[in-house]
Every structure is written in structure tokens, then in C-alpha cells.
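Observation: inputs received (chain + 4-fluoro-L-phenylalanine).
Thought: call the complex predictor directly.
Action: predict_structure
Action Input:
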Amino acid sequence: MTDTKKSIHGEWSSRSAFILAATGSAVGLGNIWKFPYITGENGGGAFVMVYLLCVALIGIPIMIAETMLGRRGRENPVHTMQVLSVEAGADNNWRYLGWLGMVAGLLILSYYSVIAGWASAYVFKAFSGSFFAADVTAIEQLFRDFIGSPMQLIFWHTLFMAATLLIVARGVGNGLEKSVRFLMPALFVLLALLLIYAMTTSGYFQGIHFLFSLDFSKLSGNAILIAMGQAFFSLGLGMGCVMVYGAYLPKDISIAKASILIAAVDTLVALLAGIIIFPIVFTHGLNPGSGPGLIFETLPIAFGTMTGGWLFGVLFFVILVFAALSSAIALIEPTVAWLVESRGMSRERACLQSGLVTWLLGFVTIFSFNVWADFKIFGLTLFDLLDYVTANLMLPIGGLAIAVFAGWKMKRQHSEQELGLPNPHYQIWQFLIKYIAPAAVFLVFLDVVGVL
Ligand code: PFF
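Observation:
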């Protein structure tokens, strides 16, 4: 591998372009939709604490490692792992790590697109004034009626998938980069406005207390696994997507600095979403553990009653859709890159094929909210099961493998050269990636299967 090797898909035009795109991939439904509802389901503060520890001790080191592998390999995850295992003198089977990631990405996208479809539908509900002066029961009914209708969910899922594929088909520079440039700043402005609203509600302190007070009696082994899975999901780790974005990264950019910045922004957005949503939940006597519908049943209440709520409601859901889009394009990019590089397909065709598979898979999630709602495996609906297996099992396993490869298999001189970190920073990263991250993932797995 030479230092001048570049990806055939091109490169990010600058450091800020990479940071924006990677932040766009990290910040998405995971922060605004998923983080609050799983925090609500898992009891609040102690769960948040474990989540933050997972981001700092496991997430950031693995993000650095995954970006580094991508930039050194410069290809899709399967080829990158193949090339790097040859370079490291390691087993050729490491390429299966790339496969695991691609499959996880498509599975996640299949339900991600359905939920993003909900957000798209809510743009129109907000626009048409459906939330105006509506009470809690009316808002809950609106949501129930909506997810009870397969046709509506199929329509919005299809629209969202089509938008994703259109952007991805246009390629790295035109599609991915341009779409995130204005998104992140807009998202922050809106969250700040909603934060001001949340601070004026009577349930503000109760919400804050729920999010930050530590009650470890509410924390099960499974909750720790969910917190860890969420760290992987939210940072977009363990599935080759960070690897692919790393492959488009110019040589002179500091991977460690960029990763820490991206993780910090991602975490801030998740915490902000929690600080906004829980005060509304408590002000209106709602149940914080109500599940995936949480933001769709709480925020409309706020929009329906606050001054300027119509405008904020429309803007909020528009931005949520955009945040979801910039993540969705990252979820499908590893597969598209692989189809182009190893099957010689055009980018358009690769998008069409992988998009079709994902779109069809999305029906499983759609039906699990209505016609198959009572069909459960291990007490979970098909959507919950898909989410559990991908986020809590596949991503941590992918992350564990990345940590082992980067820490134990790759030659030290190569990782040193790629990261360009002065000591002791390099040594801290080495320690975390070699011992702490793999041990933590492993221990959580042992705990969940009941060995501990
Ligand atoms: N990080 C995204 C979110 O929090 O919504 C979801 C995601 C994107 C997961 C990209 C995985 C990924 F590769």
C-alpha cells in the first residue's frame, strides 16, 4: 500500500467536509428518536451514565480505529479488510468483518427508513395544523392511527428510500457532502429554541432529574448492553460505514481530533434531545417508557401549545428528516461501494439493487406495527428484534473485531504512521483499543448471557 493510494470514489474536499459528513452520519434518528425512548424504557440517569462511559471508553477509540483502517485500505470494507490483513500478515477471514457490516447496514436501514418515513409524514401533519390545540389523547390517537395504517407507512418509507438513493447515486462530492453542509447548523438552532421552550415547562426539573440522577437499582445487564449498543448505533460504528468514510479521507487530517469532535457533537445532540423531551413528558403526565412513539407523542403536544409552534413543528420534523437522510446515505454507502468496486456495477445500478433489497426488508418493520403487531419472538415484535440484533449484537461484535484487528493484528508502525499522534496520546489510544474496549464489550456479552 502506498501513501498516495486514493479511493476510486474520490475524496472529501476538505477537513470540514469530512467532519460534516461524518457528523451527519452520526447525528440522526439515533440521537433524537432512539436515545430518549430507550433512556425512558431503561430508567433514566444510570442508563445515561453508562451510555456516556461507553462513548468515551469504547466508542471514541473504536471510531479512531475504524476511520484509520478505512483510510489505510482506501476501499470498501470487505476489500479494505482483505488488503489490511495481507499487510498485517493476518488471516484472510478478516474480510468477513466487512460483510457483517454491510449486512448490518442494510438491515438497520430497512427499519431506519420506516421511522424516517414517520418523521416525513409528521412534517405534513405539522404543516396542516394537526397538532394545534390538540390534547394528549388526540395526539396519541393521531400516532396510533398513523402507525396502524400499513399503506401510509409504505408510502412514506418508499419516499424516504427514493430520496436516499437519489443522493447516494450522485456520489461522494455532489451527493453526500452538499446535503450535510447546511443541516447541522440548522439542527442546532432548532434544538436551542426547543430547549428554551422546555425550560419554561413545569416539568423541567423533573425531566432533568430523570435524565441525570443516578439510581443504579434500575440498571440491568441487558440495559448495559442496550446502552453500549446505542453508543455504537449513535456513533455509527462497527459496520464499515465509518471505514468507508475514512477511505475518502485525505492523508493530512488528524483522525483522532476529528473523531473526538464528532463523538462530542453526537453526544451533545442526544443529551439535548433528552433535555427537551423529558420535561414535556412529565409536564403532561406521559409515560417516559412508552417506546418508539415517544417523540411523536410528546413533541406535537409542545408544538400544539407553544407560540410559533406551527413553524417550529414544521421545521423540527423537516430537520429530523434531513438528519435521518444524512445517516441513511452512510448506512447504504458500504454496500454501494462494494458493488461498484467488486462487481463493476455503475453507482446508479448499485444503488438501485441494494435499495430494492432494503425497501423490501422495510415491510417487516412496517407490518410489525400493525398486521403483525401480535407476532412476537422472545417477547419482542419483529421490529424490536431487528433493532436488538443489529444494534446490540451485530454492531458491538463488529466493533470488537475492529478493536482486536487495530490493537493486536495491525503493525504498530502502521497505526502510528496513520494516526500521527504524539505520545502519550498514542499510548492511551493503544491501551484503550487493546484492552479496555475489547474487554468491556466482552464482559457485557457475558453478563447478558448470564455467565456473570
Ligand atoms: N448514527 C445514526 C443515528 O444515530 O441515527 C445511525 C447510523 C448511521 C448507524 C450510520 C450506523 C451507521 F453506520
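Thought: report the result.
Final Answer: The longest helix spans residues 309-343. The pocket of 4-fluoro-L-phenylalanine is lined by residues 25-26, 28-31, 105, 108, 233-234, 236, 239, 241, 327, 330-331 (CB under 6 Å).
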